[in-house]
Amino acid sequence: MAKKDMKSILIVGNGGMARALLDLIQFSGNLNVAGFYWESGEELCGLPIFNRIDDVDPDTGLVLGMLIPTHRKQHVEQLGKDRFVSVLDGFISQTATIEDGAVVVHDSYVMSLAHVGAFAHIHTHAIIGHDCVIGEYTFVGPASILGGRSNVGSSCRIGMGSLVLPDVVIGDNVTVAAGTVVTKNVEQGITVSGNPARSAFRTVPGRF
Ligand SMILES: CC(C)(COP(=O)(O)OP(=O)(O)OC[C@H]1O[C@@H](n2cnc3c(N)ncnc32)[C@H](O)[C@@H]1OP(=O)(O)O)[C@@H](O)C(=O)NCCC(=O)NCCS
Q1: Is the whole model's pTM more than 0.85, yes or no?
Q2: Residues 17-59: pLDDT tens digits?
Q3: Whether the predicted pLDDT of 7 surpasses 70
Q4: Over the chain, what HEC string results?
Q5: Whole-angstrom Cα distance, residue 94 to residue 110?
Q6: Between β-strands 47-50 and 43-44, what pairing exists: parallel, antiparallel or unpaired?
Q7: Interval between CA 3 and ligand 1 midpoint (Å)
Q8: Among 64, 125, 193, which residue has the most ligand 1 atoms within 8 Å of its CB, making it the best to mutate?
Q9: Cα 38 from chain centre
Q10: How far is the CA of 70 from the centre of ligand 1 (A)?
Q11: How far is the CA of 183 from the centre of ligand 1 (A)?
C-alpha cells in the first residue's frame, strides 16, 4: 500500500534496484506501477520511462528505486519531496512510525515502536527490531537484521546479510559491508566489515 492516495506510481531509477523494486511491488499487488522516471531511455521491463517531470501526472507518486543514499537525496531534492510517496509492503507493527517517502518492501519486518526515517529503504527479508531508529535516506540491505533498540544514522548503507546487535548506535554516512556483525557503536562516516566488525576504510567505498 502507498501512504498517499494516488492513481499509480513511477519508480525513479533505471538500474537493478529499480527493476527489483518493480518486481517486489508487482508481487505484492497493492500498487500500479505506471513506469519509471529517469533522465534518459524510453522503456524498461516493458514499461515507459518518463524523462521530464513536467510530463508526469501530478497524481502519480514517485518512489526511489536506487540504492546509494547520496543519489537518493539528489533525486529527492531535484524532483521535490512532495512528489514522493511511501511504499509500505512489509510487515509493519501498528506501533511503528514510518516517515514520508520511505519504502518498506515485501517480506521485510518493522517491529514494535521502531521508527523509519524519510526516504529510507528497508529491503526484502530485512528485520528492523523493536524500538530501532533508522535515519533518513538510509538503505538497509536484504536479509539484514537490526537488534532491538539499535539506532542507525542518516544516509547509511547497511550491506546484505548484516547483523547489528541490540542497542548499537551507528553514526551518519556509515557503510556496513555485506555479512558484517556489528557488536559496538560505529562512528560516523566510516566503513566496517567482518565478524566482529572492524573499521575497514575511511573513504566511501565503491562497490555496493
Ligand atoms: C564493503 C564494500 C562496500 C567494499 O567495496 P569496495 O570498496 O569495492 O572494496 P573491495 O571490494 O575493493 O574490497 C576491499 C577489501 O575489503 C574486503 N571486503 C570487501 N567486502 C567485504 C565484506 N563484505 N566483508 C569483509 N571484507 C570485505 C575485500 O576482501 C578487500 O580486502 P583486501 O584489501 O584484504 O583484499 C563491499 O564489498 C560490500 O560489502 N558491499 C555491500 C554490497 C551490498 O550488500 N549491496 C546491497 C545489494 S541489494
Answers
A1: yes
A2: 999 999 999 998 888 999 999 999 999 999 999 999 999 998 8
A3: no
A4: CECCCCCEEEEECCCHHHHHHHHHHHHHCCCCEEEEECCCCCEECCEEEECCHHHCCCCEEEEECCCCHHHHHHHHHHHCHHHECCEECCEECCCCEECCCCEECCCCEECCCCEECCCCEECCCCEECCCCEECCCCEECCCCEECCCCEECCCCEECCCCEECCCCEECCCCEECCCCEECCCECCCCEEECCCCEEEECCCCCCC
A5: 10
A6: antiparallel
A7: 35
A8: 193
A9: 18
A10: 19
A11: 18
Residue 84 has φ and ψ, to the nearest 5°, of -90, 150
- Rounded CA gap, 159 and 180, in Å? 8
At 93, give phi and psi (nearest 5°).
Answer: -60, 145
**Planar angle of CA 150, 153, 157, nearest 5 degrees:** 95
In which residue are the cell numbers 575497514 written?
A: 200
Contact 137, 154 (CB under 8 A): yes
Q: What is the pLDDT of residue 58?
A: 87
Contact yes or no for 183/200 (Cβ under 8 A): no
Phi, psi of 200 (to 5 degrees): -105, -45
- C-alpha cell recorded at residue 20: 527489483
